[in-house]
Write a structure and sequence with these properties.
This protein is of the alpha+beta class and about 270 residues long. About 35% of the residues lie in helices and about 30% in strands.
Length: about 270
């Protein structure tokens, strides 16, 4: 592994190990509400603190964008920015549901270079480096061989934090379901994207995500031979949070299926 990936893995494992231990005393956690259906606990904040500490120790001049800590530092001439979700799937975690992950991505001059998604409950470490492929623990990852929506298993997530685009999403959900897919909604976009890279899901779409939800997963899919775009097939997924990913043909079929149901006011 490169030094950058080594640090990302070290940070993800440190946060994941902490979350596992803390998960044994969920009844003691302080929990706050950031917004509608948007919880944060001291576990989220402490996991992020541990990640930032490890990154800062190795790369003190790099910028950081974290879900809990926001933007820290300036992107200097090196152009490096770490994009962190210390606990993707907070609601699952706080209810004892074993579907959550740590997600760490690294952008250099607006190009994703490193991605790590760590599932501590299963001890599954998904890693990717630009141009070097993607791996799950010691196994090389490839997206599935699925070419059609009928029979595909597709992940998704509801826009539960904001209902602004709920009607558009509901129409896309109906269209994809009617296309013959098995649709799964588990509650962690980072893991959903990693599962596409691993061939467990054939595709994925969701509206209204944040950069920390998807940065690592986007790189994982691309390095595993898949495709990720915004919902209109462009390159603005990291900016708009409206994402479609999958195998080459499933991705295109998803785009074709959902596009007729998107309002003109919905950003790509």
């Amino acid at each position: 592994m490169s030094p950058l990936l080594t640090i990302a893995v070290r940070a993800a494992r440190a946060a994941g190990d902490f979350l596992l231990r803390t998960g044994e005393r969920l009844d003691e956690l302080r929990i706050e509400t950031k917004g509608p259906n948007d919880l944060v606990s001291e576990a989220d904040r402490e996991a992020e603190r541990r990640i930032v500490e490890i990154i800062r120790r190795a790369y003190p001049d790099h910028a950081i964008l974290g879900e809990e800590g926001g933007a820290q530092g300036d992107v200097g001439s090196h152009g490096a920015r770490w994009i962190i979700d210390p606990l993707d799937g907070t609601t699952n975690y706080l209810h004892g549901l074993p579907w959550y992950a740590v997600s760490i991505g690294l952008e250099i001059k607006d190009r994703l270079e490193v991605g790590v998604v760590y599932d501590p409950g299963r001890d599954e470490l998904f890693v990717a480096e630009r141009g070097k492929g993607a791996r799950l623990n010691d196994r090389r990852l490839r997206v599935s061989a699925q070419t059609r929506l009928p029979g595909a298993v597709v992940g998704t997530g509801f826009p539960f934090k904001s209902h602004q685009h709920l009607d558009a999403y509901t129409e896309t959900f109906k269209a994809v379901s009617r296309a013959g897919c098995a649709v799964r909604r588990a509650g962690s976009a980072a893991l959903d994207l990693a599962y596409v890279a691993a061939g467990r899901f054939d595709g994925f779409w969701e509206l209204g995500l944040q950069p920390w939800d998807i940065a690592a997963g986007v790189l994982l899919i691309r390095e595993a031979g898949g495709v990720v775009t915004d919902i209109r097939g462009g390159e603005r997924a990291m900016k708009t949070g409206n994402v479609v990913g999958g195998t080459l043909r499933v991705h295109q079929a998803l785009l074709d299926t959902i596009k007729p149901h998107l309002g003109a006011d919905l950003p790509a």
